[in-house]
Write a structure and sequence with these properties.
Layout lengths: L7 H19 L1 H19 L17 H4 L6 H8 L2 H20 L1 H11 L4 H12 L6 H12 L5 H10 L9 H29 L3 H9 L4 H26 L6 H7 L5 H4 L2 H11 L3 H30 L5
Helix pairs in contact: 4-16, 5-10, 6-10, 7-10, 10-12, 12-16, 15-16
């Protein structure tokens, strides 16, 4: 015998579930299109996450994952007590800080400049040219750097020797390592980064500019009081995402540019994980280092998102 209920909360929940399933049945083919993406993330993103347990074990390949002994936080303690920890932290943070200061604003500035170009053909040509470096492998970028800057026949050093009578050790002098990394990143990624900002600029209501022109606003005033404020939500969201990856400096670029003479300033968390995990076989230790990076990234995303929400009412979530 079914007992009737007059509970309004249960009735609302029942109606909500029925409405939800009705929408799912109605849009079932859209949800079916989501299925490959969901499977991809489950298999290749969430599935491998069980492997972080290795960070809390003394993993031995001949014993296997389950039979390797637990060591708790020993790997983390060894990492924090390692004399290399502060060197790695300093190098990683410095490169990330320089990237944040110089490479993050570069696409914004370029997008603002391109937005002011009225000649459509010239604008499309410039956009195409600045997009191309993004599709060039970092290996090729580093190879070009070596070709131009090497002391053994490099174009730049040949010019310096002819005009100044000396050569500069760009590739081995530690003080040149970080500037070269930043210059490479700016050249390779600035054009590609403008895509998001140019898309955001196209969404600005043209009537705002028309009203500003009527009020006598010049081009710089229009950019200051209309363009930049309308672009700010996109900038804040991307800045939050960038802060979340502040300990990710790019393994390939750093590893290819690093040598025995500049290692003191070039060695970062990414290269250290490779050296300890792949070259030396310390799988548990390197996993602990990688997990530390991930935790720091999550914390920074949360804090920066909270700060952005309080300061500007714009946040990622």
């Amino acid at each position: 015998m079914r007992v009737a209920t007059n509970n309004p909360t249960l009735n609302l929940e029942t109606k909500y579930r029925r409405e939800m399933w009705r929408k799912i049945r109605k849009d079932k083919w859209y949800y079916l299109l989501l299925l490959p993406g969901i499977i991809y993330f489950l298999v290749f993103r969430y599935g491998p996450m069980w492997g972080i347990l290795i960070a809390f074990k003394n993993y031995m390949p001949f014993l296997g994952f389950w039979k390797s002994p637990w060591v708790g936080f020993q790997n983390f303690e060894d990492f924090f007590a390692n004399p290399d920890f502060f060197k790695l932290l300093r190098n990683t943070l410095l490169i990330s800080f320089y990237n944040l200061i110089f490479t993050f604003p570069a696409p914004i500035i370029l997008a603002l400049l391109l937005n002011e170009v009225k000649n459509a053909l010239f604008k499309r040509t410039v956009q195409t040219l600045v997009y191309i470096p993004h599709f060039i492998s970092m290996t090729i970028v580093v190879s070009l750097t070596y070709i131009f800057l090497t002391t053994q026949g490099g174009f730049v050093n040949n010019w310096l020797y002819e005009h100044m009578g000396r050569k500069i050790q760009f590739l081995t002098d530690p003080k040149w390592f970080r500037p070269l990394i930043i210059i490479q990143t700016i050249w390779k990624e600035t054009g590609w980064g403008t895509i998001i900002f140019l898309a955001a600029l196209t969404n600005i209501n043209p009537s705002l500019y028309e009203a500003a022109i009527v009020d006598g606003a010049k081009r710089w005033q229009q950019m200051r009081y209309i363009t930049l404020p309308c672009l700010m939500p996109t900038v804040i969201i991307l800045l939050i995402l960038r802060l979340g990856g502040i300990l990710d400096t790019g393994f390939e670029q750093i590893y290819l540019m690093m040598n025995s003479l500049n290692r003191e300033v070039a060695d970062v968390f990414d290269t250290y994980v490779y050296t300890m995990g792949i070259a030396r076989g310390a799988f548990s230790y390197s996993t602990a280092v990688g997990l530390f990076k991930s935790i720091v990234g999550i914390v920074l995303i949360q804090l920066s998102n909270l700060l952005a929400r309080k300061v500007s009412d714009i946040s990622l979530f």
